[in-house]
Design a protein that fits this description.
alpha/beta, Rossmann fold
Length: 157
């Protein structure tokens, strides 16, 4: 059985974006493409309706590109349990209220037993300063926190 990966919206955005002139963003774009070319087939990929909704927003041409990348990826269901876990993340102040969607991504990935949550959001998701607290909140709710990581960290050897 392949490890399960929740693909957060930043991955799809970086994969399909026009090349950036910002060196850091350009590097993230390149690493995302490399991960998709080299590694994505070694995992079972999943997204949520939230990812689809976020990918649908903005410029219609770019939204079409993002949605095309999501076509064959199963969509995880959201429910009251996921909303409650996201609320716990917000109530703990590990993730700020303004980042409710980020809390929802983490909650959905945990609730559905993902092994990894792949993201470039290192402010509210793949953040070393909050991961221990997120894991504790998950454990108290009966879930395991997936490994929160970037494509660079999941590149393998």
């Amino acid at each position: 059985m392949k490890p399960k990966v929740y693909i957060e919206t930043t991955i799809i955005s970086y994969l399909t974006a026009r090349p950036s002139r910002d060196l850091v963003v350009a590097a993230h774009q390149e690493l995302t493409v490399e991960w998709c070319n080299r590694r994505r087939h070694q995992f079972s990929l999943f997204v949520s309706r939230l990812v689809v909704d976020e990918a649908s927003a903005g410029d219609s041409e770019m939204a079409s590109r993002r949605l095309a990348e999501l076509l064959d990826i199963p969509i995880l269901a959201s429910n009251e349990e996921a909303r409650e876990l996201a609320k716990r993340f917000l109530d703990s102040r590990l993730i700020p209220m303004k980042a409710i969607d980020d809390a929802s991504h983490v909650a959905l990935a945990a609730m559905h037993g993902m092994d990894y949550l792949l993201t470039w959001n290192c402010r509210h998701i793949a953040n070393a300063e909050i991961v221990r607290g997120l894991a504790e909140v998950c454990e108290m709710a009966g879930y395991a926190l997936p490994m929160l990581c970037t494509p660079e960290q999941l590149m393998g050897d």
